Amino acid sequence: LEPATIASFNYIGCYTDLAGGITRSLSSAAFAYDPMTLESCAANCANYDFFGTEYGRECYCGYTLDPTLRATESDCNTPCSGNSSEICGTGARLSVYQNQVYIPPPSPPAHEAQSGNYSWQGCIMEVTNGGPRALSDFAYYNDTMTVEACVNACSAYTYAGIEYGRECYCGNTINPGGGPAPTTDCSFLCPGNSLEYCGAGSRL
């Protein structure tokens, strides 16, 4: 069973995500990491009205939630990767909690135009055809990743890119296959600074 209360959040049910395969039910912020727990997602989403966990390791935050997306309670059955006694949604299903504290909307996150000597070049696709990564010279992982931490780690390289919120890659060239992607694809917030974006799944 889902805990009734996590921090200032109360459990409100299992909800469908990506209805129609397009729009996230909670679209204001996204995090993905191991080990995921309800408590860590609640902390990530403390400044939002709702949080939801999905696939055992993904955390989403939002200010609004469509009540018509309520799903069958038993659909949410995947244990959280960081606590197997907790449920963290399942595929295309969110275990959703609502904040009982009013949260005024903060300043929106942004892609940093400039960080140190590095300037924002856009969102690019990760190489997924079995070749080397888009940026393959150096890799650095940090559960409190920020744009600044990544560019500092990549200071000896031409390019720095962040993926999945916590993965930083460096390179002197962008390898074939790492082409441009829509800016909106890079939607994961940095776990170390929720006002910055840190790529997304297969996006830097």
From TrEMBL:
Keyword Transmembrane helix on entry: yes
Compartment(s) of residence: Membrane
Membrane topology: Single-pass membrane protein
A cellular component term, taken from the record's GO annotations: plasma membrane
UniProt keyword annotation of Transmembrane present: yes
Domain WSC span(s) in chain numbering: 8-100, 117-204
Keywords: Glycoprotein, Membrane, Signal, Transmembrane, Transmembrane helix
PANTHER family: KREMEN PROTEIN, PROTEIN SLG1
Name of protein: WSC-domain-containing protein
Native organism: Hyaloscypha bicolor E
